[in-house]
């Protein structure tokens, strides 16, 4: 806004009211996430800019924000018998066909091929398309539900994709690689192992210490018995087999 003073001071806001997932800095217009845990896909935000003059002027625009959930366990792989460069070129149309057929919002996470560059130019090339689906609340649709729907609509999907590629299309469900364990999970496992090791070491120390005390306790008891029998027992016998005197030696009394 080229105006000066209040007429040139712009404040930004989200006109759509999507403040649960996103918020905006009213002075700079910077958009940032508030909470998108478990959510992904494309969000269309209506942003408004308004000056602060007496007669406030406003302007609005739509901002598309894509939240990538590539580490999600709900990613499903669709294998197409098409060359990767052709699939990449028709990425938007493939997404449209899947959305129309499945009835969910679909986000294509990745497109890649396991074939070498030489084979990628052949007509028998296969391309893997990793997708994730979202319901109207932008919640991830479980992978098993997506796979089930893909099997049910396989024929319809292939017919619509044939129109896109102008060639026969085969769409199969592949096995997407499992998500790697999170850092929190790894840390918890390591901590658990360390605690278990510490506990075992402590238990072993206690058992060894108890065993040692019992051993030396028995030795002390034997010594005490020997002393008692040799001094205090009036019926103890000497080397010749005769009874010892009931009187203790003078040095023992001292």
Automatic annotation (TrEMBL):
Cadherin domain: residues covered: 1-77
Subcellular location per the Swiss-Prot or TrEMBL entry: Membrane
Keyword Membrane in record: yes
Main subcellular localisation: membrane
Alphabetical UniProt keywords: Calcium, Membrane, Repeat, Transmembrane, Transmembrane helix
GO biological process, one term: homophilic cell adhesion via plasma membrane adhesion molecules
A GO cellular-component term linked to this record: catenin complex
CDD domains named in the record: Cadherin_repeat
Top-level taxonomic group: Eukaryota
Coiled coil: none
Transmembrane segments: 185-208
One Pfam family from the record: Cadherin
Sample GO molecular function, one term: cadherin binding
PANTHER family to which the protein is assigned, alphabetical: CADHERIN 23, CADHERIN-23
Protein name: CAD87 protein
Taxonomic placement: Eukaryota, Metazoa, Chordata, Craniata, Vertebrata
């Amino acid at each position: 806004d080229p105006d000066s003073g209040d007429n040139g001071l712009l404040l930004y806001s989200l006109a759509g009211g999507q403040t649960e997932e996103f918020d905006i800095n009213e002075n700079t217009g910077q958009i940032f996430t508030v909470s998108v845990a478990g959510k992904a896909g494309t969000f269309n935000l209506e942003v408004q800019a308004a000056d602060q003059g007496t007669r406030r002027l406003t302007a609005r625009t739509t901002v598309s924000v894509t939240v990538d959930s590539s580490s999600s366990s709900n990613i499903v792989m669709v294998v197409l018998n098409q060359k990767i460069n052709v699939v990449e070129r028709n990425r938007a149309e493939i997404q449209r066909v899947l959305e129309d057929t499945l009835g969910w919002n679909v986000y294509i996470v990745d497109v890649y091929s396991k074939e070498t560059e030489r084979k990628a130019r052949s007509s028998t090339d296969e391309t893997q398309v990793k997708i994730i689906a979202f319901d109207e609340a932008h919640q991830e649709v479980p992978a098993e539900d997506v796979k089930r729907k893909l099997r049910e609509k396989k024929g319809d999907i292939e017919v619509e994709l044939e129109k896109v590629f102008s060639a026969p299309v085969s769409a199969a469900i592949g096995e997407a690689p499992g998500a790697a364990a999170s850092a929190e999970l790894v840390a918890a496992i390591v901590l658990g192992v360390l605690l278990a090791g510490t506990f075992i070491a402590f238990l072993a120390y206690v058992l060894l210490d108890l065993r040692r005390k019992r051993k030396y306790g028995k030795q002390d008891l034997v010594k005490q018995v020997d002393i008692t029998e040799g001094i205090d027992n009036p019926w103890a016998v000497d080397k010749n087999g005769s009874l010892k005197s009931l009187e203790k030696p003078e040095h023992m009394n001292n």
